[in-house]
Prior knowledge:
Layout: E1 14-15, E2 20-21, E3 24-25, E4 31-34, H1 42-50, E5 53-58, H2 62-67, E6 79-81, H3 92-99, H4 104-117, H5 122-135, E7 141-145, H6 152-164, H7 168-175, H8 181-199, H9 205-212, H10 216-230, H11 233-239, H12 245-255
Parallel strand pairs: 4-7, 5-6, 5-7
Antiparallel strand pairs: 1-4, 2-3
Helix pairs in contact: 4-9, 4-10, 6-7, 8-9, 10-11
Amino acid sequence: MSRLLPFEGIENFRDFGDYAAGQRRLKRGLLYRSANHAQATDADLQKMRDLGLSVIVDLRRSNERETNPSRRWEGFAAEVIANDIGQEHADEWHEFIARSDLTAQSFRAYMLEYYDGAPHAARHVDLYSRYFQTLAKAEGAVLVHCAAGKDRTGILCALTHHVAGVHDDDIVEDYLLTNNEERIARRLPVMRQHFTEIGGRVPSDEALIVAMRVEAEYLERAFAAMRARHGSIDGYLDEALGLTPQLRERIHDRLLA
């Protein structure tokens, strides 16, 4: 079964349901993830509408949303979860590019540091907690996305799998599906142009590929940060995100067959 759904202008669009979850199974057609929707074609918008999306979680900062606004279909009525918290850190990526030697090693180090802090960033705590609250009660399918659909989105989808009871191996396997070679090859020219526009320097293809991929260690760093402060991933979900046993039960009832 291919989880990747083909879209013309949206990258990394996947169904992250249909995994075994203990004695039950995540339903298919309720949980989607993707990159941003700024380049969505009219055909893409029709396809998203046909998915029955009732909630879209946009994990991007407000400056990202303003620079690349999401396209919506006619009659769009889905709930959108977003926030404007943390804009004082909005230039972190550009600042890194300005000071970095743009090697593969520097990109990897940046990502490891990013995952160390991401679970407890105030804007993520707000977005993630609101997502789980909404997931428990929403009718219809839910779509989670950020800019590239790999890091912020990857952490939240992994947490969703954990809450549902998906095996750790499947959680990592799903996370690593971002590393689609065809997608990465297709994105290389876009990434070269991106770096030309924002810094005037273009990293090697090796470095750009590191920037576009994810590693299992990244996700483990995020989980380790949760354990360090809360004792466990479940402790993080409870203490940081307010995921009560009652809320978990409602999520299970909605998502599990």
